[in-house]
Design brief:
Largest sheet: 5 strands, mixed
Number of helices: 7
Number of domains: 2
Order of helices and strands: HHEEEHHHEEEHEHE
Strand order of the largest sheet: 6-5-4-7-8
Strand content: 15-25%
Shape: globular
Number of strands: 8
């Protein structure tokens, strides 16, 4: 869904969109964990999109147990805000959220922005699986007036002072990127093993550090298969 499509959503459409993301296999009760055993409460006195679990008999909605719980901000405004903050290269200020979403106060916009940033920091629910491509890059401004130790000009690649970032992309699926403390055996191994399933095949370049990851087995004697796809 694009930002233009998100702005055209109705409140009912936004709730349906959120339910599809959170419950692709049917509603899951946040109280007892029972799958697809809930009934929708369609009475005139019930809140919109309210469900009741047939198992524990407790009521819930798609926002229960999320950063949107107990918020007076509508699901449509949440969806648009998520798209704005994820798609904007330079970020979105709370003041801009307040103005574009028509929120009643700056405090609401500020609280909303911080909740979304908190959600972005949460650990992924599942590891990348299948054919996963991985590579590292370096992010930061242009190095100005800096010379390497031999005095032969600016440093590039692994010799730069920029922040190293690793990108992991599941072919035809999800993608993740995160900063590294350094491009070394330990940092690469920790990042890959934290985000890639052991049944996956890792496709990467000819950097020798990647090839040694498959030789480093854990206590369960599992390893990730590494395949080279060419020079970076």
């Amino acid at each position: 869904m694009t930002l233009a499509e998100a702005t055209k959503l109705t409140e009912e459409g936004a709730r349906t969109y959120l339910e599809g993301i959170r419950w692709p296999d049917g509603p899951v009760c946040p109280h007892c964990g029972e799958l697809d055993n809930a009934v929708r409460m369609n009475g005139a006195v019930h809140r919109a999109a309210l469900l009741q679990c047939r198992g524990c008999r407790k009521q819930f909605s798609v926002t229960v147990g999320t950063i949107m719980e107990r918020s007076h901000i509508t699901p449509r405004q949440w969806v648009i805000a998520f798209h704005m903050m994820c798609a904007s290269k330079k970020g979105v200020s709370a003041l801009q959220l307040q103005r574009m979403l028509g929120l009643g106060s700056y405090k609401s916009a500020w609280h909303m922005a911080h909740r979304i940033r908190l959600a972005m920091k949460e650990e992924p629910l599942s590891s990348l699986l299948g054919q996963v491509e991985v590579d590292e890059t370096y992010v930061g401004g242009k190095p100005r007036n800096k010379k390497n130790r031999e005095g032969r000009g600016k440093k590039f690649g692994r010799g730069t002072d920029k922040i190293p970032v690793i990108a992991l992309i599941e072919r035809g699926g999800r993608a993740r990127a995160m900063p590294l403390e350094g491009v070394d055996q330990g940092s690469l191994t920790d990042a890959i093993r934290a985000h890639v399933d052991f049944a996956s095949t890792l496709n990467t370049d000819e950097l020798g550090l990647y090839m040694r990851i498959s030789d480093h087995r854990d206590r369960s004697d599992r390893s990730i298969m590494i395949t080279r796809i060419g020079p970076s």
